[in-house]
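Field: COMPLEX_INPUT
Field: COMPONENT_COUNT = two
Field: RESIDUE_TOTAL = 472
Field: MODE = joint
Values follow.
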Amino acid sequence: MRYELYYWPSIQGRGEFVRLALEEAGADYVDVARGKGGVDRMMRVMDGAREKRPPFAPPFLKAGRLLIGQTADILLFLGGRHGLAPKDEAGRLWTHQLQLTLADLVIEAHDAHHPIASALYYHDQRPEARRRAEDFRRNRIPKFLAYFERVLARNPRGWLVGARATYADLSLFQVVEGLSYAFPRAMARQAKRWPEVMTLRDRVAARPRIKAYLASERRIPFNEDGIFRHYPELDG
Amino acid sequence: MRYELYYWPSIQGRGEFVRLALEEAGADYVDVARGKGGVDRMMRVMDGAREKRPPFAPPFLKAGRLLIGQTADILLFLGGRHGLAPKDEAGRLWTHQLQLTLADLVIEAHDAHHPIASALYYHDQRPEARRRAEDFRRNRIPKFLAYFERVLARNPRGWLVGARATYADLSLFQVVEGLSYAFPRAMARQAKRWPEVMTLRDRVAARPRIKAYLASERRIPFNEDGIFRHYPELDG
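Field: COMPLEX_OUTPUT
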């Protein structure tokens, strides 16, 4: 079965967490909206007069007759199917819990440049973004990354959960990459406080399928339309 | 087995979504931080030098040897244990997907009064809150509630999922109650656009265990320390 991933074609965004899981799994998938007429197809599913269980927003994944929205829900599904999460209930819930904490951080990373409204342009909320980004750099990034550092420090195997890479590891990699793109000065200053997190980032990047993916054209470069945006004035 | 719920004792907050599920399930639980010395106990679990899998923030639930953080993850667990979600994979994922969409709305409801930083007081971010709340009232509440209206309209059984109440229904009830408390004028103006949502709210409120809970002292009143806050200047 070929999965169909639906997500905006010009950004990594939330879709990237799903792409990384599909790539690491070596799954057969098509990134629908990047093909011809794909955005229209995506919008038709969203409008979804015919969908019994319509998604609220991209990304969503078609897996045979299943249509699954919400990044963390998609990963919960893929984790079980492709060995990207433990099989036991406790391990499955713990992996998901970590993913949900990363999802909170992703929202805050977005709101650092869009604190007032997603529907407004960045330049219409610049003063507010400056204030919010300062708090995000000084207080929120350290709080979240110190937490993941603590979790990693308790597992001698070097992963967030157990002895193998899970989707939460892939997502932490993506978040660190994104933060490093958006806030290079702040992250360079702080990186030495999170050696375990940085090591994990490198370990994920070195996995053969992820490495091949990152070097391919399937990996969309970071840009200023996505979640992680580099606006130098927000980097302190 | 008695569950231990850990959450801030003076607000509904995110803990309320868990409380509602425990109450509907008729589960045996203790709201730890509302007892003597309970907040200290909660903070010790959080600091958690001894916890193998420490939570990032309240709420978290102890269920025997399991310690589960993140509201949606707790509900995923409780849903399976207490028949508050379908047993089949598709139904389980769909219920969770709806919960995650509600979780996004909850974050936005909070950020309507705290658009700059959680760590700052409201009066230190009032002008920004005014701008954000306006967008929230005009664009975001309608977008989210129209979505849930659409989902409900497709299910003749009157619930979000299948033929029985799930934790997503309880959560939608709580969100509508919270929005109605925080934005009474905006909600009164808009309520007629979402008849199915309002009917669902009433159906949940009338369930015997929920009704008893809402009338009890266990239900903390809404207040201006929680997620849903009534600041008249943010209500348009």
